[in-house]
Design a protein that fits this description.
Length: 324
């Protein structure tokens, strides 16, 4: 497996120079500065157990030149996965070129999935409810080891789990095993008209946007979409749509990333995803997350951070519907 690297643009003058050049006279530094900007020179530094690459700021005309030089450096160091600064995450063409060359760009999706149970716990607390008393509907198609581990973990923390899938027979076996081993019953269906019509909390594990929109969805549902943003095309949806999260972790990890402005210029979610990226199973991931005291600060929807009032609003609408 290849190594991982951080990539950021120079954010201050000192980052243009190597350690031994910092003490040089300003005239000499000015020449170095000019040369590295003009010729798109890439600098790299050892950073923790990775490398940190500094690239110059670029305009669209020079973007391909900068990326080409960056890729040469990544290939030389056997880098296969990268973490981009907040600024570079906004450069879609830059990311597309790296993706086309086969590089994995950490995007926080693995972390979001790994914190699914904590996301559900966070929502329950915002609504002043207990998670173990909730019903959660899972949208899942791929019968993978990772998906199975996630379903098993959720089934231990939630009262009722229902699975909606196009592969009913495969997941029936999982349901039977959970019933025989732990007495946990899981409903499995693929009814597009009724499957999500009364669902209060929906956790989309791997359904694409097109498939989600084939189902009749409860207008007041909370939809958590692990794969990223999707557009709900059903008219009248008045629930909550969640596609990302903000986290915090302990001071030790904060201090680890203070050097070279990493803690300021890279999303904390990506720094934490790096920590769990090479873990082999769900249990190892959860252990690592607990060791750094990972906490969810906020959940993110289409309009940004979702307030406690929003969760309360949906809960009240649901209660009113039950009274009718």
């Amino acid at each position: 497996m290849g190594k991982m690297a951080f990539i950021k643009q120079y954010s201050k003058k000192e980052e243009y120079f190597k350690k031994e050049e910092i003490s040089k006279i300003s005239f000499y530094q000015s020449i170095i500065l000019w040369y590295r900007k003009i010729f798109s020179i890439i600098l790299k530094k050892e950073y923790q157990d990775s490398l940190l690459f500094f690239i110059p700021e670029f305009k669209p005309k020079r973007e391909e030149k900068v990326v080409a030089k960056l890729i040469k450096n990544l290939e030389k160091e056997n880098i296969t996965s990268v973490i981009l600064s907040k600024k570079l995450e906004q450069e879609e063409n830059f990311k597309n070129i790296l993706n086309a060359k086969g590089y994995t760009i950490l995007d926080g999706r693995m972390l979001f999935r790994s914190l699914s149970a904590d996301v559900l716990e966070y929502i329950a607390k915002q609504q002043d409810r207990k998670l173990e008393m909730q019903e959660v509907v899972l949208l899942v198609n791929e019968d993978t080891s990772i998906n199975r581990q996630l379903i098993i973990e959720l089934s231990k923390r939630v009262k009722n789990i229902k699975i909606i899938t196009n592969h009913i027979e495969q997941f029936k076996k999982l349901g039977e095993n959970l019933y025989h081993s732990d007495g946990i019953m899981i409903g499995i269906t693929n009814n597009k008209q009724k499957g999500l019509k009364k669902a209060k909390i929906i956790l989309n594990i791997d359904f694409p946007e097109e498939l989600v929109n084939l189902y009749t969805i409860n207008r007041e549902a909370i939809l958590i979409n692990l794969p990223g943003k999707i557009l709900i095309r059903k008219k009248g949806f008045n629930g909550i749509y969640i596609h990302d999260l903000k986290i915090r972790f302990n001071n030790e990890l904060d201090e680890k990333y203070e050097q070279n402005n990493v803690i300021e210029e890279f999303r904390k979610e990506l720094l934490l995803e790096k920590l769990i990226y090479d873990k082999k199973n769900y249990q190892e991931i959860q252990k690592s997350l607990k060791e750094v005291n990972t906490k969810i600060e906020n959940l993110i929807g289409n309009n940004g951070i979702i307030s406690r009032e929003e969760y309360q609003r949906v809960e009240k609408m649901e209660q009113n519907n039950r009274k009718r």
